[in-house]
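Lecture 7, part B: from sequences to assemblies.

Below are the input chains for today's worked example.
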Amino acid sequence: ETGVTQSPTHLIKTRGQQVTLRCSSQSGHNTVSWYQQALGQGPQFIFQYYREEENGRGNFPPRFSGLQFPNYSSELNVNALELDDSALYLCASSRFNLIGGKADTQYFGPGTRLTVL
Amino acid sequence: AQTVTQSQPEMSVQEAETVTLSCTYDTSESDYYLFWYKQPPSRQMILVIRQEAYKQQNATENRFSVNFQKAAKSFSLKISDSQLGDAAMYFCAYFSGSARQLTFGSGTQLTVLP
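Predicted structure of the full complex, as structure tokens:
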């Protein structure tokens, strides 16, 4: 069983640039969630994708956007990067059950460390 | 909105001893899940244990067990026979029955002393 993978591992950008982070979900999972983890803090929910549509969103501005593909992999795009966007970005996959409408346990990838200069 | 509080920023334990990490949460929902994740220096968030709120029995996974007190909204993690590999940041997390997100606490940094 393949786990959650993310790319790239590290990324350095300058303020105002745009960035795309990628995530491949675990085998058998159909839902991908993205989290931002600032240094020394717990992760904060950005959004979740299910069936290629945004399925919930945290308190993040519209310059944070995403995609989910038919194979359930996902991208996180951040436009107009700001210094405060420097963080570890975590992707988590899970299985959303239509019966009962409940999402199963989330399993995390290794993260992408984004530094904005 | 749900909140999760971890009041112990740092804890230490002697190898082979037992340590308990505390977590409290606030919610008005009746159907939810609670988790403990560990995050070693490698950064990967690893699931330690999961508890469904409707289950009265405390979850156990090998050396890891929880003390789930639903009325008190408390969810502590006990690590028995601590090993050097248990050293990590431990996060308590809340997940409601219909939610799309995990809500995390601020974490407890656990050091295991040889």
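Note for the exam: Chain A touches chain B at residues 33, 35, 41-45, 47-48, 55-56, 58, 88, 90, 92, 101-103, 105-111, 113 (CB under 8 Å). Keep this in mind when comparing with the next example.
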